[in-house]
């Protein structure tokens, strides 16, 4: 756990450099290919402090050949429902707020170091058809980070990074 936190802090501070930067979009797509487990989601706030994002359990799946990906995440601290088959309105809302899901096509911009995701399915109806940008960094073959583009952040968050580990 301490290594994960230290790694996350270094990523947030920008002190971890990529150990493998491929030259072509195809090479980058191959690096993304497969299933990834979310290791941490450090967020830097306007006051300079950091916190872990709430949806700390997640998986991403990348298909290098099709240029597609899917993402699922959840907040493991969501409250259990009193009745599994008939949640209250409040329980249902907490379940939805604590869960993220989407599928998208991706465009890799290898020279610039980012990907653009075009949502085809999204938990948030207004996001379908929208494009978002993620800056990527690979640390070897089995670890990567995806940083949310600054234009997509809302105060007090000024930097938001997802740290991933390849599932083997």
Structural class: alpha+beta
Give the biggest sheet.
8 strands, antiparallel, barrel
The helix fraction, in percent, is 10-25%
Count of DSSP helices?
3
Strand order of the largest sheet: 1-4-5-6-7-8-9-10
- For the record, the CATH architecture stands as Beta Barrel
**Overall strand count:** 10
CATH topology: Lipocalin
- Could you tell me the radius of gyration in angstroms? 17 Å
pLDDT < 50 runs, ≥5 residues: 1-22
Tally of structural domains? 1
Assign an overall shape: globular
Strand content: 35-45%
The CATH class turns out to be Mainly Beta
* Mean pLDDT over the full residue set: 89
Secondary-structure element sequence? HHEEEEEHEEEEE
What does this structure look like?
The chain is an alpha+beta fold and 168 residues long. It has a single domain (2-166), classed as Lipocalin. The chain is 17% helix and 43% strand. It contains three helices and ten strands. It has helices at residues 2-13, 25-32, 89-97; strands at 34-40, 42-45, 50-52, 57-63, 68-74, 99-109, 114-122, 131-138, 143-148, 157-166. The chain has an eight-stranded antiparallel barrel. A hairpin with an 8-residue loop joins strand 7 and strand 8 (131-138). The two termini are 20 Å apart. Mean pLDDT is 89; it is low at 1-22.
What's this model, at a glance?
This protein is an alpha+beta fold. The protein has helices spanning 2-13, 25-32, 89-97, and strands spanning 34-40, 42-45, 50-52, 57-63, 68-74, 99-109, 114-122, 131-138, 143-148, 157-166.
What's the structural blueprint in terms of helices and strands?
Elements: H1 2-13, H2 25-32, E1 34-40, E2 42-45, E3 50-52, E4 57-63, E5 68-74, H3 89-97, E6 99-109, E7 114-122, E8 131-138, E9 143-148, E10 157-166
Antiparallel strand pairs: 1-4, 1-10, 2-3, 2-10, 4-5, 5-6, 6-7, 7-8, 8-9, 9-10
